[in-house]
Predict the structure.
Amino acid sequence: EHKLMFLRCEQFNVDLAAKRYAKYWNMRIDLFGDKAFEPLTLDKALKDDDVALSTGFAQLLPKKDKTGRSMLWIDPACVDPEKYTRESMVRALFYIQSVAIEDESAQQKGVIFICYNGNNPPFEAFDRQLITKWADTVRGVMPLRVSALFILHTPFLFTVLANLLMFFLGEKLQKRIRILPNDEKEMLERLADCGIEEDMLPTDIQGSVKLDHKSWLEERRMAGK
């Protein structure tokens, strides 16, 4: 099943899937060291990354969009590099992205990233090295297809953020970035046009989902995931 994820991601192009599979394990060894071959669960490979995981920087939304794509809610305001190492946060992101593609539909349709800046993230949240390492886990490595990246509530320092994203994501992923209007009504309308309804979105933008990342992590841990 694990290898099949790479085939689905590359639309059953065997050569591309094999290259991605090899890069995935090289990256996993680089990130996790002697825990690379342990199960990718909270109590095994991620057992030393509780603090980074608990920040809520990246959270998996409970519903998929209308086409079956998983959605990750990114809140840069949750970044606090004094509490964990940059490497620990990258491992946490690696784990959450892995959870996002557990479902076959997400492996085939891709994952939507929604970057929410409404909580006024500090300048330090736009960590160039963190964004670089994070992007490196995605581009041609994880069996994850970035379907779209929506940027909500464009921050004052957006020029910095945009330049970082454009530089590190690469030409292919750049084309999938969507910057939405700051007006929430218009923002929700634009998201709905893309198959993302209000009942799929957090209450931060007048959606119906009450995020409880702590409970989500505890449920995963209790299930041995």
The chain has a mean pLDDT of 90.
